[in-house]
Amino acid sequence: MEQCQLCGDGLKFLNTVTLPTKEKICDTCKTKAKKDLGLGFFSSFEYSLDDIYSMYEVNGVDLRALHQQKKDFLAIINSQPTTFERRIYIAGGNNLIATSTDSKVYQLDDERIYFKDNYEEFYYLISLEFEGPRFKNVTSHSSTETINNKYTEKERKKGKGGKVVAGAVLGNLMVPGLGAAVGAYAGSKGKDKKKKKGSQKITNHAQSNVTTKEVEEKSICYLELLRISDNKQIKITIKADSNDFHALGGLSIRENIPAENVDSGNLENNKITRSEAIQELKNLKELLDLGVLTQAEFDEKRKTYIDFL
Predict the structure, then answer these.
(1) What is the pLDDT of residues 117-143, one digit of tens each?
(2) At a CB cut-off of 8 Å and minimum separation 6, what does 33 contact?
(3) Which pick of 69, 179, 199, 301 has the fewest CB atoms within 10 Å?
């Protein structure tokens, strides 16, 4: 994968900006440069890498050195396995390790620790402490409602008997025999009519339930670190519950804190710069990839240079 020629991060198809000089940078670097240099969000970006570096230098920032430092740092990280990774929420001390409050902690196979967006420093974990779990009472309310629906129906028969008799008598006076038949028919029809009348009764029964339970909330966890570059001890505070603390227990604690003057074996008079140590580690990694060194030999030789980073 191609890399941004400013920050060294991998380039993606929709996140690539090609400069007039055919150099490629990521869109994140372009946006940051426009903001840092006051170029305006909607202005064109017709600059080369050298132009960008020069504009930063005018503002007193050696961007080239910063990005090279990041590339070297990433080369070290990529030279060995990452044995631990977890998101953390820092309550205090994030400025001491140059990261945000919402960060990530990583640990390499050689027990060195680094933090998200900090491409300058490695640390060792000296101790891990937990204040213990904290709980709060949470009350919840619920209610149930029962509805009883009762319907009563009454039936009433309604006829026209009086009118039928009168009709039959009148019919007999006018046409004997016929009036009685017509009257009887009308009377029978009237007697079959029914009218229904009902009533409905609804009863509500409501019941409220209150339950209280203990729920764990975030407590405090302390990480005591040793900054490898100057052997300075740093303590940061992390928001953590029991699950977080048990997960952080996966970090390896450095038992033997390195002294200021580390015995470097075959390095003459212990004199070696950080950049030289980085280059030596790169060379060792190349030998490992080529199969010249075994993994065990690489791990052993790597220890010689670690404490100079």
Answers:
(1) 999 999 999 999 998 898 988 888 877
(2) 6, 39, 45, 52, 55, 56
(3) 199
Contact 83, 107 (CB under 8 A): yes
C-alpha 234/C-alpha 290 separation (Å) is: 39
Residues of the chain with pLDDT under 50: 160-174, 178-187, 189-191, 261-271
**246-252 contact pairs (CB < 8 A, 24+):** 247/86, 248/86, 248/88, 248/128, 248/221, 248/223, 249/128, 250/84, 250/86, 251/84, 251/105, 251/107, 251/113, 251/125, 251/128, 252/83, 252/84, 252/107, 252/111, 252/125
pTM of the model: 0.58
Contacting residues for 155 by C-beta, under 8 A, at least 6 apart: 194, 195, 196, 197
Per-residue HEC secondary structure of 9-48 comes to: CECCHHHEEECCCCCEEEHHHHHHHHHHCCCCCCCCCCCC
Residue 131 tokens read as: 């204040």
